[in-house]
């Protein structure tokens, strides 16, 4: 899998130490099979349109606006300029606010990983100093960053020669585990635990990335479909001769004018 171009560039800042950095997603789903919705009768793709839920008429892009529902059928409309005004200055700078022990942030708060790397040779030393200092203290940095017009809390974790930046879930996005686990009262009998441990040891292996069996079956299905379809005839695109003649004529006319101008 080839490295993708960074989709965010900015600065990593700690106190007076600043360095340019680039951010790329650490995971990808572009290799997954994607389907388009088609019109079986025509073989054309079906386009999605925004329509008014009451009138059923299509809504033009310039008439589309964000709305917050404060009651049933009652919305507060917010313009793009108003939404942009509440964005903080974390659009282009990852400024580390605090450090915290790595084991103090549990897995459930981690959302999506990204690779953070220095963006030029000059800033590599500053980047390495911040990275190595966090590693030696076994801490991670906490900061904020704007993703798609939404500000997210982020965690910076040293990893190898770089830093992994995790977006973090906010407090109201995580449900307390006690609501689900508190009613589990079962206590297994003493003789069952040794047998289960033995079974676990027998089936313990080194983990390797797991392939998607559905993806593999889909590829096989598509390959079989391809065998039954006749290839479409390629359209031959012939150059427009009139255009070529016109361009050549225009060039000749330009050269003739230049000659006449010099003669005068």
- Largest sheet properties: 8 strands, mixed
Q: Secondary-structure element order, as H and E?
A: EEEEHEEEHEEEHHHH
- Distance from N terminus to C terminus (CA atoms, Å) equals 65 Å
Structural class: alpha+beta
Explain how this protein is built.
- The strands form two sheets. This protein has an eight-stranded mixed β-sheet with strand order 5-1-2-7-10-9-8-6.
- It contains six helices and ten strands, in the order ββββαβββαβββαααα.
- By secondary structure, it is an alpha+beta fold.
- It starts with 7 loop residues before the first strand and ends with a helix.
- The mean pLDDT is 82.
- The chain is extended and about 105 Å long.
Question: TL;DR?
Answer:
With 264 residues, the protein is an alpha+beta fold. The chain contains six helices and ten strands.
Highlighted features:
264 residues, eight-stranded mixed sheet, alpha+beta, Ku70, Chain: A, Domain 2, 28% helix, two-stranded antiparallel ribbon
Please render the helix and strand layout as text:
Elements: E1 8-14, E2 17-25, E3 66-71, E4 74-78, H1 80-85, E5 93-95, E6 98-101, E7 110-118, H2 124-137, E8 139-147, E9 150-159, E10 162-168, H3 178-181, H4 192-202, H5 213-228, H6 241-263
Parallel strand pairs: 1-5
Antiparallel strand pairs: 1-2, 2-7, 3-4, 6-8, 7-10, 8-9, 9-10
Pfam families: Ku
Keywords: DNA damage, DNA recombination, DNA repair, DNA-binding
Subunit structure: Homodimer. Interacts with LigD.
């Amino acid at each position: 899998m080839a490295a993708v171009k960074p989709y965010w560039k900015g600065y990593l800042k700690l106190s007076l130490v600043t360095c340019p950095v680039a951010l790329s997603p650490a995971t990808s789903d572009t290799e997954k099979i994607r389907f388009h919705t088609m019109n079986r009768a025509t073989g054309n793709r079906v386009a999605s349109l925004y329509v008014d839920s009451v009138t059923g008429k299509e809504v033009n892009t310039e008439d589309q606006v964000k709305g917050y529902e404060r009651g049933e059928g009652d919305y507060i409309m917010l313009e793009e300029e108003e939404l942009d005004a509440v964005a903080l200055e974390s659009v282009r700078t990852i400024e580390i606010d605090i450090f915290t022990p790595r084991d103090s942030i549990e897995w459930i708060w981690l959302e999506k990983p990204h690779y953070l790397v220095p963006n030029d040779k000059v800033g590599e030393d500053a980047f390495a100093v911040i990275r190595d200092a966090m590693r030696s203290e076994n801490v991670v940095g906490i900061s904020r960053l704007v993703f798609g017009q939404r500000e997210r809390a982020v965690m910076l974790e040293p990893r190898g020669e770089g830093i992994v930046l995790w977006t973090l879930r906010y407090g109201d996005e995580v449900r307390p585990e006690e609501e689900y686990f508190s009613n589990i009262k079962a206590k297994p009998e003493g003789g069952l635990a040794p047998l289960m441990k033995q079974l676990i040891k027998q089936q313990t292996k080194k983990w390797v990335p797991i392939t998607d069996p559905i993806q593999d079956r889909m590829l096989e299905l598509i390959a079989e479909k391809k065998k039954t379809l006749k290839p479409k005839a390629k359209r031959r695109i012939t150059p427009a001769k009139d255009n070529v003649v016109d361009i050549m004529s225009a060039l000749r006319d330009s050269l003739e004018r230049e000659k006449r101008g010099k003669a005068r």
